[in-house]
Amino acid sequence: MARSASLPEPWASVGDQLRARGQRWTRQRDAVVGVLSRTQGHITGAELLARCRQVDASVVPSTVYRTLAALEELGLVRHGHGASGREEFHVGADTEHGHLHCDSCGRQWEIGKEKADAIAALFQADGFQVDRSHVTIVGRCRDCLRARKD
Amino acid sequence: MARSASLPEPWASVGDQLRARGQRWTRQRDAVVGVLSRTQGHITGAELLARCRQVDASVVPSTVYRTLAALEELGLVRHGHGASGREEFHVGADTEHGHLHCDSCGRQWEIGKEKADAIAALFQADGFQVDRSHVTIVGRCRDCLRARKD
DNA sequence: ATTAATGCAAACGGTTTGCACTACT
DNA sequence: AGTAGTGCAAACCGTTTGCATTAAT
């Protein structure tokens, strides 16, 4: 299959990277990568599947999950856990981030490096090495606190 | 059904608390509460189910989950999320705690109040109110770091 | 031609539901 | 007697698997 269409790096070269490992570049993987390239931060497997289907109705769950596994081996995504308990994939150049999740409105924000480091530092004394990409902090965002003071 | 057998508070009075709300005290709920009273920290629904079955083989999933919902309304348990992504129930007088989870050996430790507060403080400036009982930090514990330096 | 990847369908695990039945109050 | 709670079975959701088929190399 042809090289993936003019996507920003690191996505443009995914096909080549896969081939270099004896793996293959397919129409379905192109669809998955296309969606991921337009995703900032994080996405669940189910969400990714749904969005891929809009692009290419033939994409099935197994393909999405197998492709995610392949991309994870390339270091292009990392899996972590969202507040809902669902598995989540961190996407983008900076996959090393956690999430701030509002319990009320469901919106999410990434946790910046400084704060992730601050959290990691808290547990360093215990000899515990924090995986920054797995940090999920749940609570109420400013807007929701203002909206309903219950 | 009879009052629950000499359990430490707050479990001993669960039956009365339920009845006061027009709800009922049953053999199955006694089994669930019995297990919870012997649980420190946290437990998943599935785990709780398994342990209840050892006590009373007739306990079925729906009963466990419905009972957990009832107990949550009484404030005796709170649900949060474990590192595996599974729903987890925080048990005990101090339900306000997060978890430190070792990715490698699977062991968990509670996060103390001071550290939970420190984490909450990090996001206070953003106007974000952290739910301390939902905090789960994943990484590698001291022992596993020592064991395999990969 | 080789063999990685796909599509399907079935199975998984944990959880939730509808409903007739049981048993607490 | 009234009705909350139960047990069952089926459905749910997201994810994973086996296997025959397709298609990238």
Explain what the structure shows.
Two copies of one chain form a homodimer. By secondary structure, chain A is an alpha+beta fold. Chain A has two domains: 3-91, Orthogonal Bundle (Arc Repressor Mutant, subunit A), CATH 1.10.10.10; 98-149, Dna Ligase, domain 1. Helix content of chain A is 40%, strand content 20%. Chain A has a three-stranded antiparallel beta sheet with strand order 1-3-2. In chain A, strands 5-4-7 form a three-stranded mixed beta sheet. In chain A, a hairpin with a 5-residue loop joins β2 and β3. The mean pLDDT of chain A is 84. The interface between A and B is medium-sized, with 32 and 32 residues. β7 of chain A pairs antiparallel with β6 (129-130) of chain B, so a sheet runs across the interface. Chain A binds a DNA duplex (25 and 25 nucleotides) through residues 1, 19, 22-29, 44-46, 49, 58, 60-63, 65-67, 70, 86-87.
